[in-house]
Structure formats: C-alpha cells, structure tokens
Here is the input.
Amino acid sequence: MFAADEASRALGIELLEHGEGTAVLRMTVTPSMVNGHRIAHGGYLFLFADTAFACACNSHGPVTVAAGADIDFVAPAREGDVLVAIARERTRFGRSGIYDVSVLRGDEVIAEFRGRSRSIRSTKTKESP
Here is the structure.
C-alpha cells in the first residue's frame, strides 16, 4: 500500500519499520511545508501522521480506511526538522480499530494523532458490456 501512495512519497516520507499494527515513518520538513508563521503547516503534519496510521492499520491484510481522526498539535515544527511518526494499534474490534500516532522531533512530541479505522469488504466490479 505505501509503495503506491503517491502523496506521501512526493513529500519524501519514508517507511522505516512496520509490523502487525505498528509503523515508524520519517519526514523532513521542507521549505514548501511551512506556513506564513514559518512553522510546519498543520495539514502536512496531519498527512504525515495519517500515513503512519494507514501503514499500521493496513498491516493486517484487509483493505482498511480511516473512519475518522483527530490531531493535537503540541509544539511547532520548523523547516529542516526531521520528524518521526510512531503508530501503534490500541485495539481492533470487528472491522474497526483505534490507533495512536506520536509525531516526534528527536525525543520531543510535536503532535498526537488518534485514528479510527474500518476494514472494507471487497467489492466486485461490474464488467462493462
């Protein structure tokens, strides 16, 4: 799934580790990611955490998508900062799951993200006449 993620790859996001319900990713804040306050735009931080969440929740096999997510920004990130996102599965129940992602600069927490996942049933495509 990550290999086909054009948006994340275009931002230079790297998948460092992955396992059952876990993922560790890295991203460097580039000049195009900062806002008018010269700090990383929250949308990029959300995308980074969401990518880690996606890698973790899709580790079990069935196609899984976000049902919802929230993020709390704890500290600003700046151009040149190397960030790491650590995603951990908290629980899975039925076709749903809850995952937490910590975004770090070194040992400092930049953001905390909670994602809610839903595995989708495969759908058969109708062939065109």
